[in-house]
Here is the input.
Amino acid sequence: MKGIEYIIDDQGEKTAVVINLEQWGKEWEAFYNLLLKQSFPSESWVHEDSFSEKLDKALQWNHDHPSQLSNLDSLEAQLLNN
Here is the structure.
């Protein structure tokens, strides 16, 4: 299926999926919302708009700011010098 890639373990079992959100974003959002409702039916805070908005902002921030590796030795030296 275009826009969907599976990650497979050494035994050939599917263990994860990568979804192209540009292509499948609306479907993913509908699935995710359904999953949240079914996973936490007694947790009303999960379903509040403010939580969803904060989660969306956090996910967008993570998308806009990719992970960075830090040189721990360099960071330690900087801390010791300050």
Summary: The chain has a mean pLDDT of 83. Residues 21-39 form the longest helix (19 residues).
